[in-house]
Structures
1.
Amino acid sequence: MKSKTMNRRDFLKLQASLALSSSSLLSLLGAFSPLQAASFSDYKALVCIFLEGGNDAFNMVVPTTTTGYDDYKLIRGDISVPKDELLPLKNTDYGLYNMPAMQEMFNADKLAIIANVGTLVRPITKIEFEAGIANPPQLFSHIDQQKQWMSANSNRLEKSGWAAKAANLLENLNDFTNISVDGSNFMQFGGDKPAFEISGDIHPFNNYGYSDPDSKISFDEILHQIIQREVESDHILIKAYADNQIQNIAYRESVSQAMENALEFNFTSTLDDEPGIPLAKQLEMIAKLISVHAQLPGSPKRQIFFARLHGFDHHDLQTIDHPLKLNYLNNVLQEFQDAITSMQLSDQVTTFTASDFGRSLVPNGNGTDHGWGGHALVMGGAVKGGQIYGEFPELTVVSGEYTSEYITNSGRVIPTTSAEQYLATLASWFGSYSDSELEIIFPNLNNFNEKNLGFI
């Protein structure tokens, strides 16, 4: 292999590629105490696809009846999607836009839609919202709403995400229970074991191009020597950081060895100017990791994966960009589900979407403002598909006033289902948690009558 000189920038980039979640330092310092729950012999995985920026779900799932569509078009105006392009969903009055594979999955009972879900402390009415009663803090803020979705708590700031807390409650908690293929995220932050984070491909050190094939000392040995000096430091944080880096090296080597036996998939979906790591590449990596889950250290029986599709903050050019993103998401989800099915793991792997928030129903030019409630997709063999769960608000206007008690004066939609209800339903399938354990993961769940939505 051709060797090359490593400069300071290269070294820092490599260090970043090795990094696990920063919660690993806290874990090494003993910040958390383990909790125990049931042990499992079967395998299950949850795959979260976070639609970052705020997906306009009311242009993803649209009424198809004459009256329903006319009301929708009256509110949405120039950003409404054409009725003749809607793909009907069986036994409903709604259709999907630009997502033919998802329509096919829904009609084959392999995909469910969760209607009007969002961050809530408890159920609230429009009157309460307008009066500022029981509203989640910092509504319509990207970073705050993302964090509330990822912590599953809209009442107070959390120190860890819901996936980290869910993993803590597993008896067979594993170093590879939580895996992100798009870098750091709060959903998997703060657990007793840090999330394993990947940005791009996994390489053993001798594949980075920095080792000299004629040298007796490999690059990873040199890096070990550098870190060893930090291990011998008297400073507790320096020692913890060094231990973390050594652990990361071992993790990378273990995963890269397992990946030598991974099944090959060929995800071909593309999206022009897609920011960040392409979702197709992320989900292809997840499929490969799932194919070798039994070969990872500890053979994890439960895994939560995090992927992210960027670019949903459509303040402009929504009618051009949003349909492309929906179709791309449709294609990649189909490719991923085909890969899972080919491994005969459809019943064991459940994929679901989440987003910062929905968008305002009323356009602001050629785009939309930040909203609140939106719709989510859940697919997999264990899903009770072919149904819409939850409640759609009525999209009717009389004399300039919205008649639905869930549409605010500014045209935003108050969620009728909480993110905690949605995520708790997924978690119940994933971990068979007791009611008391679900309360640890989802602190506001008892504020809602329906704790399990029954879609899985």
Note: The chain has 13 helices and 16 strands.
2.
Amino acid sequence: MKEYWTSLASLLGVLAFCQTLMNSLFPPELRFAVTKHLNRLSQLFSSYCYFDITEIDGVNTNELYDAVQLYLTSSAVTSNRLSLTRATNSSSTTFALSNNDSIVDTFDSATVLWEHVVAQRQTQTFAWRPMPDEKRGFTLRVEKKDKRFILGSYLDHIMETANEIRRKNQDRLLYTNSRGGGGMDSRGLPWESVPFKHPSTFETLAMDPAKKRRIMEDLKDFAECESFYRKTGRAWKRGHLLYGPPGTGKSSMIAAMANYLGYDIYDLELAEVRSNSELRKLLMKTSSKSIIVIEDIDCSIELKNRSSKKKQSYYEPEMMLTGSGLGGDEGNGNTITLSGLLNFTDGLWSCCGSERIFVFTTNHIEKLDPALLRSGRMDMHIYMSYCTFASVKILLKNYLGYEEGDLSDDVLKELERVVDKAEITPADVSECLIKNRRDKERAVRELLEDMKRRVEKNEKNGKLRGLNGSLTVADDAEEQEKRALDSPYGEEEEIEDSICKNSED
């Protein structure tokens, strides 16, 4: 063994001497040329080609490097060594490929090898900003026969996957516009944002399960059909109108939609918008994959229904929309026109982004102008009704933990008998259950008593079907819900006829 190590040391010494001799006999330029030609010669007989993706391209950050790093988080679970990271404004931890480690990925029957190369930067050159001490990059090895396919579809797939991962890992944001657009966030935009932490989901939403499924299918179909919108020449956007009595869960529905799709929310306060041009600027500064909300649109602005009394011109002063309480007639400039609002939802300026949903909420749909409700602006009309038997069971599960079969048949039958006639909102039911959440039996008992009192009050006030069989307030609400379910896409003529009839009444 001792002789073996002695021979190995002698061989290493000879090799070092030969390298020193070659360095002294051959200039660096000649050695570089020989090495380059040897590499080219080896590439001719190799079935692979290599691509380097550096972290910094000149002085700019390489977007493709960040995308590859995120993309490999979905494949790096097969690696023995991973690095854990948590991005800014994120509540989740992601893993990535460690330094100088490699991983094999497969895409549509093509196999590639990724290697994360990290080396120390030798010298700092003069630059307008300091460079990192480490030089990072990815080396992609692909077979020559797959080169064209990999550089096209595969890299596009990486960018799309990375964007999706980035969106899922980042917390949702809730934006609001400031007075006159004067306030700016850290990015210099006229929207101020806070993390969106609303816990509402479709699972916890107190609504008929069949109606929830229809809404969820519509949202999913919208988010996955970019090619359809492009092929048909339509802007990739959709409008939802939420209407119904106060306390029926319109705001919770918006939160559930945002959590389901993973979209940000822009809560537009029309009373803070001074002009049509400012409204357009706010729209231009919204991002894709977002929900633009105008809550209680019948209260935030003095909206005149053109069909209510007489036919009016678009240019008459009465068609100005004045911010509530702002005194638009006093000349302080806080007015926008109906035309500006319509173009905001379905005009040329509404197409400056993609994958956005406009949501309007109102307690009085009859006060809104029919032009605002037509398809293309509000494509789906969702009636947020009083509690049904199915929604009460959802609330009992949410607040008291009652599962199917936990309540006695007598209690369930009594609830089913009175809930429709009680006209009680999910907000009222929730308050009763929260107040008595530590005593489940008492909570159910008080809820039943409250419903029975409401039924007696409604019967006394004549809110149920009258003696002459004509539709009353309760029946009219049921009729609106039925029409919303039968025609979820809001046929323009049907809605206009309904609005005009309600206004005349």
Note: Residues 308-332, 464-478, 481-505 have pLDDT under 50 and may be disordered.
